[in-house]
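Input chain follows. Return structure tokens only.
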Amino acid sequence: GALLAADTAATEVRLAAGRAVAIVVDFGRDVSGYPRLDLDGPAGATIDVSYCERLRDDGRAQVQRANVITSQNVHRYILRDGEQTWEKFERAGFRYLQLTVGPAPDRPDAPVRIRRANVNFSTYPVGSRGSFSCSDPDLTRIWNAGAYTLQLCMQDGFEDCPSREQRQWAGDAYVESMVNYACFGDARLTAKEIRQVAQSQRRDGMTQMATPGDLAATNGLYIADYCLSWIMTAGDYVLHTGDTSVVDDIFPNVVRAVAWFEHHIGDDGLLWNVPGWIFIDWAEVDKRGAAASLNALFVQALGHASALAGQQHATALADRWRGIAARAAAAANRLLWDEARGVYVDALLPDGRVRRVSQQSNAAMITSGIAPRERWDRMLDYVTDAERLVETSTGFVRPPYTAIDEERQVVLAQPFFMHFVHRALAAAGRHDAIVRNIRDRWLPMLVEGGTDTFWEHWHGRDSRSHAWSATPVYDLSREVLGVTPLAAGFARFRVEPHLAGLTSAEGRYPTPHGEIEIAWRRAPGHFTLHLDVPPGTECEAVLPPGATSPHLDGAPAGVEILALLPGRHAIEALLP
């Protein structure tokens, strides 16, 4: 922890009998830690302390919202005589502290002096191993804001947010883990989360949606797709770390989880009417019947589960799961594809396909490998057409259900599922679209919010520090710097920079073997790449499209994919 003080001088509060004074302290951005006050005043005076991420229209702290899970509490401290310090016992996430000072009953005219308003800043002790900067200062700012947002959501586990529940949700942890690999490279919380989700497994094979936690005891609710997120988290963990000990611990749980879903496979090979809360995203995706998004995530999770089975030498099980995935993919392509519009619809009901179309379902069809490559361009043209996109929102604070023209409009992905939309765009080589979307949708959060954190929804009415929205960190490091692991633990990796309209980019990508350091620059007709390959690894360096006459470390290379051994390398090429 570190003691962070708001930029304010000591304040002396003089009170009239029967009156109180409220002071709002702005820390300039969201923080996580323990509010702390250094005070001087008379015995019996009171200070009511509340905290929040945004203020009401009248400038006071937003302490309570009806029917909303909230941690915006009020604490009363009763002073003794003289100098003293108060610090909250429980951690909080906030930007603003409201201090409401009440007079001492016996000395109502005695002043109360607030010498300092602090926060004992506390997060998981991350190290800044990763970095990113580029020729567009807005993108650099966005990367740093995403890393800071994630830091606020890392404590003894991954959290959805520091301000509200502080729960470790399995879906949030999936995106947070991917972002963490790019900016911090500390996978211990991911390993802990994977094991804790396995420990939460019910007798029927379903895992809890947030764990450790009290939700199962309070209402028995679960999110089926978060169980799939957990399987994907385990698969990506092995790829990024090379550590298979986690798989040894949780593989029996994976087997039981997949079996739970198998009970809900219909005669056509698709999941039908899966019980529980089908979350997918805070958006009005149609999730009834055979939901396209859920089936696509199931196929994607089966791919990870099959890889984990291979590591456990359970080849028969791996083959069986691949067979289930192939059958589901074939059914999705046959039953959920709308040839006239060139998209997958959101769901299949007993009486036929629904008409609703979403970014979520179509992105998942690509990331899962279900959609054939020849369909991608039609799909992406349709679901990224700005004239078609409609922002719908579910959640704790939401407008009424949104009217949508299901024949021509498309449900926009909220920040959480935009991670999958960007993965689909990257698979299709649309890196310019990723960068443009990051500028258009993430920069307004920083400008409007006047802070350095990303929100739970685009509308900003719920949590304003929500790390499932930090996917631009991963996007910029993976796609613009161009780093992709090819073998477990980065024993082999690829560096394939995507220029995306930029003239330069540089940064570090953490791996178990050390940092990959990258700096590339584009000038008229010329491209240069400087690259440090960590010991114990091998690298494939891929030149930008159209590059010719490559030179590696000063010598002609004659190929477009360069095999690099550990050490520092310089690559030059001509651009059209």
